[in-house]
Amino acid sequence: MGQPLIIQWLVKSTAFNRLRVFVVLIQKMPKLSVRNLSKSYPNGNSEEVEVLDNISFDVHEGELLGIVGPSGCGKTTLLKIIAGLLEADEGQVFIDDEEVHPGHNRVGYIFQQESLFPWRTVRKNIQFGLEITSVDSSRMNERVNEIIEIVGMDGLEDNYPHEISGGQARKTEMARSLVVSPDILVADEALSNLDAQTRNYLQEEFL
After folding, report:
1. Residue 107 — φ and ψ, nearest 5°?
2. How confident is the model at residue 170, as a pLDDT?
3. Could you tell me which CATH number the domain at 108-207 has?
4. Farthest-apart Cα atoms in the chain, separation
5. Among 34, 88, 136, 170, which one is least packed by beta carbons within 10 Å?
6. What is the spatial distance between Cα 207 and Cα 120, in angstroms, rounded to a whole number?
7. pTM assigned to the model
8. CA distance 69 to 39
9. Residues 6+ apart with CB under 8 A from 194
């Protein structure tokens, strides 16, 4: 639970000249808390290039957060640390007030570049995340069917990535991230390489 926010005000009455009244409002705990993250990479000349420097922020349930900046400023590095795909040099990441570490599975990640497995069908790509969990096969099929319908890929589930369009591939990647019911969904410029019409459509679907 977050730290209580204490509000104090004064009330005048006949019995007390100054009666202090305290009301305690419990601040809603952030869904995601990033605390003092720092990350550097070697630049090939025995030197370190700092891409993240003491980054901290909170995101609450139901909020959307956009991270903007020039190419190479550390956006992808930050998202990968949050998603548990990369280890920070310093700092911590909390989800529901619980610290998470590299390798956790509480964040769904949609990569900037297309990342479907070309040897797997749409259905097999979507169910990949469930295959490494303890979900039984009947529940897995049920969940995959639900997500396929939600993202509008029904009828294409037996196609391979080279048999679908770029927009359909992105929808498949979205479905693969959503099928595991993540606490948080991270999209790394997931719609940047699409035409305007497809991008606008998927943005509506995404939200």
Report:
1. -125, 130
2. 85
3. 3.40.50.300
4. 81
5. 136
6. 27
7. 0.71
8. 16
9. 166, 167, 170, 202
